[in-house]
Amino acid sequence: MRKFFLQFDNVSIRRKFILVYIFCICLPVVAGTIIWMAFTSQSMQQNVIHYLDQTFEGAASDFNILTQTAVNVANQVNADNTLLNDLSKSFSTPVEHYDLYWSSLRKRFNMYLVSNPEIAEVSLYIDDPHFINTDYFRVLDDKARNTQWYKMASQTDTDIMVYPGSTAIAITPYSNRLTIVRKIKSPTYLNNATNYLLIELKLDRVITKVKDEGGSVDVYLTAPGDNIIWSNQYTNKFNLKNPSVLQLPPNNNYYILQKSIGPAPYFEGWKITGVYDKFVIFKKQIVVLIYILLITLSLSAFSVFLIWAVLNSMRYRLSALSRHIKKVSEDHLEPLMLENTGQDEVGLLIITYNKMIAEINGLINDVYKLEMQKKSIEVENIRAEYQYLQAQVDPHFLFNTLNAILVFCVKNGYTELAGVISSLSKLFKRMLTTGGDLIPVTEELNFIEKYLDIEKFRFGDKFEYEIQISPEVIESNRFIPKMSVQPIVENACKHGLQSSIEDNRRLVIKADIIDMALVISVRDNGSGMDKEKVAAIFNKLENPKSELNLEAGSYDETESGVGIQNVYRRMMMNYGERFHFKIYSIPDQGTEIILRIEEV
Length: 600
Known about the structure:
It comes from Ruminiclostridium cellobioparum subsp. termitidis CT1112. The chain is of the alpha+beta class. About 55% of the residues lie in helices and about 15% in strands.
């Protein structure tokens, strides 16, 4: 797996986007479409069968209610003794017959029609040649006996028979109707003859429901023998030889659902059949699939455009950055300038790169300046060493002369002068000693003590000094540059105490460790300085362009600036920002200079 990802890192960004598009968009769409086709085909089949079953179940229920109502009306008429008694009467004149019809018989049949709107007509055929034909009553004559309904009803053994069609007397037979035929006979009524009650029903409600909810289904209403009573097709396309008889197609290409209808035993063999072409489902799937593909292609086209835009944006900027980095290897350290770097990851990378180039240029300039400063310092060191060697004509001669004077003072009892000469000799010896620039703090303070002995000889009883070294300084064995404190002490004696009018001149030197930092304080009670003079000294120290005149040895009409400038520059060269320099001075009260060196 790790090897695969390593190889994948070598593929270009364009090909990576193409692979992402193929595997993350195209393949999921194709796989999803195949899975959708497989699952929806079965789901749609189940939905169609369930929908047809619910539709046919509702149609069968309506048909049951409709036919059962007609059967109930027929049974009521057969059980209506008053009606049968009226019909059994003999009439001497037609007027008597019409009087009875208009006063009684017509109202009873009107009642059934008003209360049952699905009943189209009610007709009672009476086997009595003397009966007069009226709206609801007719004579069962030879013409009636030649009808199809009579032939079927007279041959059946049951009292109720269903005739698949209209029995109404009309020029054009009514469609979408069937007739319930009820035999009316009694040994005491109607001369014991067989009479027939015909109740014609409208099937419009049932058929309309099947039409509306059947949709693209071929629906057939069949009587016994699969004779087609009604269909939403003009012909039985599955039986072209005899279109009036239903012939079912093979189940391979069609979904077929049959439902028995009507109450038994009157509608035994009556069925409602639905035939649904499987190709219709496939066509619906194709239509849905086309919509899905159109939406998918639209989204894919948009995603291709978006990927192209993202890729083009990244490729342009990354290519420019790559070409510019190659120039860096040829020492062309210039920032990458584009019209719009952007704020995305690539844009931030370019911005960071430009910052890096700017920092590199800055570092190069700093290094160049440091090299120039280093060369300047080396030149100054060589010049100083030359001047030092030039001034040191014969240091041993001077040192030997001091020793001769010291021997003379000892022999003649000049004890005080001998001590001063001894200290001066040790000072010359240390100053002429070569070695490292860094020495222990204790060694520097011992040298200062020899120098202060000479100053005390000069001032006499009017000068006192004190050197305080904390045990932490001795134990820490800290190192400082040679002659880094002595110039500060010399300035304090020469410019602070010497110009003071006080007789109790005092100098205190302290060395201590405070917060892990070495702190050296030189404090005198001499003439002090005002704020302007202190500010002038700091201005010279902090402004590299304002150099001191080392040859003249003067600073603001004194020589104090030379020693302080020398100490400050040497400390900054050794410790940098770890070194802190402070001056606290009040006129006629004294001055305190503090050197602080932070621990690494």
